[in-house]
Automatic annotation (TrEMBL), chain A:
Keywords: Membrane, Transmembrane, Transmembrane helix. This is TIGR02588 family protein. The chain crosses the membrane at residues 12-34. It comes from the Bacteria. The lineage of its organism: Bacteria, Pseudomonadati, Pseudomonadota, Alphaproteobacteria, Caulobacterales.
Automatic annotation (TrEMBL), chain B:
Keywords: Membrane, Transmembrane, Transmembrane helix. InterPro entries: CHP02587_IM, DUF2391. This is Membrane protein. It holds the Pfam family DUF2391. The chain crosses the membrane at residues 19-37, 49-69, 81-102, 114-132, 153-171, 183-207, 219-242, 254-274.
Length: 123, 275
């Protein structure tokens, strides 16, 4: 260890922080490079009802939208039809391989409602 | 070998103080960005190669700032590299903690989302950490290399300042909106004002650290005009990284560049005073 000893002593804290910063930065760059090299697929969006709550304001359905594609979808429009009632909501973003939640309000129990993604825009 | 032999409590305490100052700098400089919605969106939606370009071009800039400012008293190539890495750690930690506290990064976020949102904020945070020493050290005169900065060094500092200001504004929707609202006359006015203020702030306003210009015309040609060119270049780069040039005609891009060039020019001028 004598050979390694620098003439000027550095605080251990500096080593620890520098190692942390270097590692995290290189890891972030690594992930980005890896991702950049992957072939990207357009958003593949799937919407489904995951929960229904009965409130004073009607039946509130929690809609989960999953994106199985690589690209992020923005301004995702969701529509659900139940009888003659249609409910709509917009999600700002559904990230690639991620998910986002929206809420739709119905007068009746919406468990049988058909939920679908109408469209989206590129972010 | 016992651990105690490596640890000198006084040294650690002093460094802890440097580190505290670095965190303060990161906070001061990155809170506006951490609270900007477009920055969160950029972290999620930005193409990986753009994010890479951003982080990749940030690294040499951070190293340059470590060289000219830095937040510890030591100097030297290796120490500047260490300072750069530490600044990045400070940037990452600051961004992670605050984005979690703001509820922007939560358990539902995919690792890629969280990483993107934090990484894009870590660079300006690190920038602030490196500037902290000069800004927050309350006048204990350190041997920064800034005083002996060469001409290239001066230009570098201007680009760092321009980048810092541009970064704070470029991600916002308003940038595009202002560009849409400005006509050619507005743009010309903005150019004139940018150049004028750049010159006045660096040479005339009487700030501490200000240049003395014995020959104003020479100063204008050597510093002000190159400074404005740098400000415009940095603006264009930042706009490109944030996708603000996508789908615009050359004319539209020029307008946005001139609009963002205004704060960038102020940043370039301020850099000579701040760093």
């Amino acid at each position: 260890m004598n050979a390694k000893k620098t003439p000027e002593k550095r605080p251990v804290l500096q080593w620890v922080m520098a190692a942390l910063g270097g590692t995290v930065t290189l890891a972030a760059i690594g992930v980005m490079v890896w991702e950049g090299l992957q072939p990207s697929s357009p958003p593949i969006l799937m919407a489904r009802i995951v929960k229904v709550e009965v409130t004073a304001a009607g039946h509130i359905a929690t809609i989960q939208v999953k994106n199985d594609g690589d690209d992020t979808a923005a301004a995702v429009n969701i529509e659900a039809a139940l009888g003659d009632q249609t409910a709509k909501a917009t999600l700002d973003y559904v990230p690639g391989h991620g998910e986002a939640e929206a809420y739709l309000r119905f007068e009746a129990d919406p468990r049988t409602a058909a939920v679908r993604v109408e469209g989206w825009s590129a972010p | 070998m016992s651990l105690a032999a490596f640890i000198d409590p006084r040294l650690e305490r002093n460094y802890l103080r440097d580190l505290g100052r670095a965190f303060a700098g990161a906070l001061v400089f990155s809170i506006p960005l951490l609270m900007t919605m477009e920055m969160w969106e950029a972290g999620v939606a930005m193409a990986p190669w753009r994010l890479l370009l951003f982080v990749g071009s940030g690294l040499p800039l951070l190293y340059g700032l470590a060289y000219y400012a830095g937040f510890s008293n030591r100097r030297g190539l290796f120490n500047d590299l260490l300072d750069t890495a530490v600044a990045l750690a400070v940037g990452f930690i600051t961004a992670s903690i605050l984005l979690i506290l703001f509820g922007v990064v939560d358990w539902n976020a995919s690792p890629r989302e969280a990483l993107g949102m934090v990484a894009i904020q870590a660079v300006p945070g690190a920038l602030g950490a490196l500037l902290a020493r000069k800004q927050l050290s309350g006048g204990d005169k350190g041997d920064t290399d800034e005083d002996q900065a060469s001409y290239m060094g001066e230009l570098f500092l201007m680009s760092a300042g321009a980048l810092f200001f541009a970064l704070n504004i470029a991600p916002t929707e308003e940038m595009i909106l202002i560009a849409y609202k400005t006509t050619a006359v507005h743009a010309l006015g903005l150019i004139a004002l940018s150049v004028l203020l750049l010159h006045l702030i660096v040479f005339k306003a009487g700030f501490a650290g200000q240049e003395e210009a014995d020959r104003p015309l020479e100063a204008f040609l050597y510093f002000t005009l190159p400074g404005y060119a740098i400000a415009l270049g940095i603006s264009l780069f930042v706009l490109f990284v944030f996708g603000r040039t996508d789908g615009h005609s050359i004319d539209g891009v020029l307008h946005t560049m001139i609009v963002l060039g205004f704060p960038s020019a102020i940043g370039a001028a301020a850099a000579r005073l701040l760093v």
